[in-house]
Design goal:
The structure is a single chain. The protein has two domains: 180 residues, Type IV / VI secretion system, DotU (Serine Threonine Protein Phosphatase 5, Tetratricopeptide repeat, Alpha Horseshoe), CATH 1.25.40.590; 41 residues. It is built from eight helices and two strands, in the order H-H-H-H-H-H-H-E-E-H. The N and C termini lie far apart (88 Å). The longest helix has 38 residues. Strands 1-2 form a two-stranded antiparallel ribbon. The chain is an all-alpha fold. 55% of the residues lie in helices and 2% in strands.
Length: 254
């Protein structure tokens, strides 16, 4: 089981001659919600791999994800969460990843074609219905289950639909559930920001995205922009000084 204090060993490209994971994400976030904090790398992995074709999928992806789910579960135990809350969290997480795996064709090249995370951890083939039943139970005690409700809301915001995945005619019903959960969480948090999220106000239904972190690339681009501004300022000053000198020379030559 991996150590949650270290980065997840999922490099984007495998090191030559060394079998290993093939994507790398920071394993610990900066969320106000420890549950979201622990799950962030797996959620990021889903978003990262959803843009890749099946030929680019890492080998042994399923077993790697199983290991990280177990590591996240251990971390939540150390955080003091109730056993039932941890089981519910794992159920939602597995269902979300399985839905993404099937929706993006991961199963064509990986162990998902043989089994799913939900089968592995809960011996169930599909959780798209049960997640919403679970939501109805959790929402009766929103204070007690706030972290779990926020995590589920994040999964909804990242595209999880469960039983509404194929029932396009029932999207209005999902939207009502989504807005109801948003209202409940807003009452709990007030004006406090939702952990790890920002809202795109132009998107219908209050869609959210994971906040992008400042990277070396961003710093370099920012530094380059500053240098360009200073260079343009230098050119303007030089042009001004040149004009002054020419003006003075013209006076002397008259």
């Amino acid at each position: 089981m991996s150590d949650m204090s270290e980065p997840s060993a999922f490099p984007v490209e495998p090191e030559s001659g060394t079998p290993g994971r093939q994507y790398r994400l920071t394993l610990r976030g900066n969320s106000l919600n420890p549950m979201i904090d622990a799950a962030t790398p797996l959620l990021g992995m889903v978003m990262r791999l959803s843009t890749m074709n099946s030929q680019a999928m890492p080998e042994h992806l399923f077993s790697q994800v199983v290991t990280d789910v177990q590591a996240v579960e251990q971390l939540l135990q150390e955080q003091g969460y109730e056993p039932g809350v941890i089981v519910s969290f794992r159920y939602i997480l597995c269902t979300f990843i399985d839905e993404a795996a099937l929706g993006n064709g991961w199963s064509n090249k990986n162990e998902w074609i043989k089994q799913s995370l939900l089968v592995h951890f809960h011996n169930e083939a599909w959780g798209g219905e049960k997640v919403f039943i679970l939501l109805e139970r959790l929402i009766r005690e929103p204070v007690r289950y706030q972290d779990l409700l926020e995590f589920l809301y994040l999964c909804f915001s990242l595209g999880f639909r469960g039983r509404y995945k194929v029932a396009m005619q029932q999207q209005d019903e999902f939207e009502r559930i989504y807005q109801r959960l948003h209202h409940v969480l807003h009452k709990l948090r007030g004006d406090a920001p939702f952990p790890l999220l920002h809202q795109d106000r132009k998107t219908r239904g209050g869609r959210y995205q994971l906040i992008r972190r400042l990277t070396v690339k961003h710093v370099l681009l920012g530094g380059l922009a500053v240098l360009v501004v200073f260079y343009l300022f230098y050119l303007l000053r030089l042009e001004s000084q040149t004009q002054d000198i020419l003006h003075q020379l013209n006076k002397l030559l008259r």
